[in-house]
Amino acid sequence: MAMENTTLFVLLLNVLLVFSASLVSAEQQSQASAVGDPGMQRDGLRVAFEAWNFCNEVGQEAPHMGSPRAADCFDLSGSLTHKVTEADNRLGVGDSFPGINPENINNTDLYAIEKELYLGSLCEVADTPRPWQFWMVMLKNGNYDTRSGLCPQDGKKVPPFSPGRFPCFGQGCMNQPILCHQWTQLKDGTMQGGFSGTYDLDSGCGGEQDGVSYYEVVWEKKVNVGSWMFKHKLRTSKKYPWLMLYLRADATKGFSGGYHYDTRGMLKTLPESPNFKVKLSLDIKKGGGGKSQFYLLDIGSCWKNNGAPCDGDVLTDVTRYSEMIINPETPAWCSPKGLANCPPFHITPDNKKFFRNDTANFPYSAYHYYCAPGNAQHLEQPVSTCDPYSNPQAQEIVQLLPHPIWGQYGYPTKKGDGWVGDARTWELDVGGLSSRLYFYQDPGTSPAKRIWTSIDSGTEIFVSDKDEVAEWTLSDFDVILTQSGTNLMNKAERKK
């Protein structure tokens, strides 16, 4: 009898072990990473740099800097083997390189696009369901010279007009920055490199100075240990009061959020709402002042007002953004007296819909600002339309603030969550939340597939009235596909 009991116990134990193993296997299968470097743990780093003027173009290269695109990509096998050279990074208008269309060699905007593709080809890593290229450091100058005629209005070319609310110190205010590159080196088991510089063209690579704009991203990692730490710093100045700095995971092929041309990046599988989460560790050292719209997360995509995917037609394509701002000084412009700054309705996690005039139930303080695309034909009044000049096409933006209503998705629930002194690792149900946010669509059209081509974190210091400094560290970044998203990736692999 004792032997039978022992045999039965062993049999049950084996069944439990097999069942537990199958549960672990199912969990592993149900969650796959959409990025080429999950959690930023790969020793062979791939990172690139892009700088933009106000309307996501180049306009004019900074003297002796080449086109404002660069990369630091290497493999590690005992020593660092760099994939990109200084000559590659210094390529500028008029310089030829493999694969460039001769028609674009003297066009500053189109040249930068082709240079990004070329750098991507040097950095590319083979993978399934498709190869990937690099994390992208994005720097943007918010100055807008309205007399330049450089920026379109909702995709339409417009003549110069008188200055208004946009900052500009005069001709040349939309300039590209000086780029100083500290090539990644290996020393005593630690790898470190960085990009830094300034928009003040009479300054150099001497580092940060009072009264002068400055940006810096330093990456550091111990070999075979943990995640890359990306340390960011951004300083505004009187001449450059509106600057943006983000670390982005962009589409490896196709349009990324805010662009109308083929890009390169880290998202080897494009996440689709509601089937993905985002994990990241964020430690904010300095917030950047009251005008710093610090984005715990910013997601971007593109689809037309009729729900169709974007095709590069800037007159009908619309960039869509959703941004969670965690600066506790950022107010809710959406209010019962500011309905134009609110989306027309809010949907709860359990799918209840509250319209913005429902003052008893609409969570006004959960929204900083909503603005609709300027090319939409059936907008519900009252409405604010988005700035028509700062993207190459019309845009729609949903800006969120910490609020208890977002808690079920893992987002911050109160002012101060994740801010200076409250470093955290976040796991955000970005797919679930983004599936319930309001985005404009023409009446009677099929709902757009909400496929996100850019996911990033960083700050936009929005027209500060004094010099401000933001400083933060980002690590452990990952985009995790949940069950349905994993199935989509597997189908893509089978089709390949």
UniProtKB/TrEMBL annotation:
<feature type="signal peptide">
    <location>
        <begin position="1"/>
        <end position="26"/>
    </location>
</feature>
<keyword id="KW-0732">Signal</keyword>
<dbReference type="InterPro" id="IPR056122">
    <property type="entry name" value="DUF7705"/>
</dbReference>
<protein>
    <recommendedName>
        <fullName>DUF7705 domain-containing protein</fullName>
    </recommendedName>
</protein>
<feature type="domain" description="DUF7705">
    <location>
        <begin position="33"/>
        <end position="481"/>
    </location>
</feature>
<dbReference type="Pfam" id="PF24804">
    <property type="entry name" value="DUF7705"/>
</dbReference>
